[in-house]
Amino acid sequence: MIPYGKHSVSDEDVEAVVHVLKNEFLTQGKQVPAFERALCDYTGAGYAVACNSGTSGLHMACLAAGVGAGDVVWTVPNSFAASANAALYCGAAVDFVDIDPVTRNLCVSALSNKLNDATAAGRLPKAIVVVHFAGSSCDMRAIAALTAPLGITLIEDAAHAFGGKDKLGNRVGACTYSAMVVSSFHPVKSITTAEGGVVFTNDGTLAEKLRLFASHGITKQQAKMPVGHEHESWFYAQIDLGFNYRLSDLHAALGLVQLAKLDAFVGARFEKAKYYNEALAALPVTRPLMDENSAWHLYVIELPEHDRTQVFKALREKGIGVNVHYIPIHLHPYYQGMGFAKGDFPNSETYYQKAITLPLYPDLSADNQGKVINSLKEALM
Ligand SMILES: Cc1ncc(COP(=O)(O)O)c(C=O)c1O
Q1: Of 17, 24, 107, 358, which residue is 20 to 30 A from 365 by alpha carbon distance?
Q2: Taking the domains of the chain in order of start, what are their residue ranges?
Q3: Which among 80, 85, 243 is the best mutation to test ligand 1's pocket, defined by most ligand atoms within 8 Å of the CB?
Q4: 11-259 adopts what CATH topology?
Q5: What's the fold here for domain 262-380?
Q6: Ligand 1 touching residue 157 (CB < 6 A)
Q7: The pLDDT value given to residue 229
Q8: Average pLDDT, stretch 113-137?
Q9: 207-211, 225-229, 302-306: least confidently modelled range
């Protein structure tokens, strides 16, 4: 089966991990700070707080934004459930803004309308988690222009977009228009640490909170010690309720080697996406916009004239590991239990009915990509 996504790991990645295993701390050593520095150098962000998944990063980002019981957080239905779950972990409610059918990202005019309604109802969201679907950035400048005057914290879920740029050429992760940017280093993503993630910010206070949440809410900073314990070098104090969301040194060592190859990985994805776009031009499929700044995490086509389920099945039978991104979050039974229903976000639902993700990853060979294209042509006949 040709998978829809796959990591690229070579001997140097293996050696970096083995080196840590043989020589250094397995966790809380030098690799995580070195990885965080390299992540800042790459993105231009002031701070990078590494963590053990994109999901824990989203949870910490919501907590750092002050999200809690009584708040509401908005995101889009066309994403992985983690984009919405993070707010629920904090005790907040979730609501959604529908997507634009062309970009498949948050629809700016739907956001504007929903913000007007929420202002009138006195129920503005505390934070909005915007998702750069498939690696192509949302229009962050337009979104921030709507949310900044209302004091809403913007969190970018850039799990798909690390290594990409926004519409104006700013690197994803630079937090040009947002308080925090979260990414994931799961194996199908731009680079991998196996499991892993990061939260970027330019705000020192947020960075300090993120570090606390990643490590039990415990600090060793002298200034934060309770009175009477300031000079006890062994002392540590829990000053908030945190978690163990730390990345290990093994994972960070892998991430450091992977990061050096990020641009090459994204470049390879772009070339393959371009090839698909050319090869599929004559077929009755809707191709993704050819966004040169995308990190090209996914290559998703829509089938306006065919039964998606049948085409999916035919491709799987031919050994093509197609996938579907995404079942709209509000249609999951757990979210339906909260009162969301079919028809609530029609653009996300219509898109979902037609979407099919073709294999795309840096090591996808020309032969295998040709096989995907020919199999699709046959399946559409
Ligand atoms: C859009 C999006 N957000 C968040 C996540 C969660 O990342 P992780 O798997 O590292 O927890 C994913 C993972 O697939 C994702 O696709």
Answers
A1: 17
A2: 11-259, 262-380
A3: 80
A4: Aspartate Aminotransferase; domain 2 (3.40.640)
A5: Aspartate Aminotransferase, domain 1 (3.90.1150)
A6: yes
A7: 76
A8: 98
A9: 225-229
Structure tokens at 129: 């988690």
Which protein residue's CA is at the shortest distance from atom 14 of ligand 1? Answer: 80
Look at residues 7, 62, 106, 296 and name the one whose alpha carbon lies nearest to residue 199.
62
The mean per-residue pLDDT over the stretch 30-45 comes to 98
DSSP codes joined into one string, 260-327:
TTHHHHHHHHHHHHHHHHHHTTTSSSBPPP--TT-----EEEE-SSS-HHHHHHHHHHTTB--B----
Cα 232 to middle of ligand 1, angstroms: 41
pLDDT at 287 over 90: yes
Q: Which atom of ligand 1 is nearest to the CA of 297?
A: 16
Which residue has the least CA distance to atom 7 on ligand 1?
A: 54
Q: Which atom of ligand 1 is nearest to the CA of 133?
A: 1
Task: Return the ligand 1 atom nearest residue 185 CA.
Answer: 10
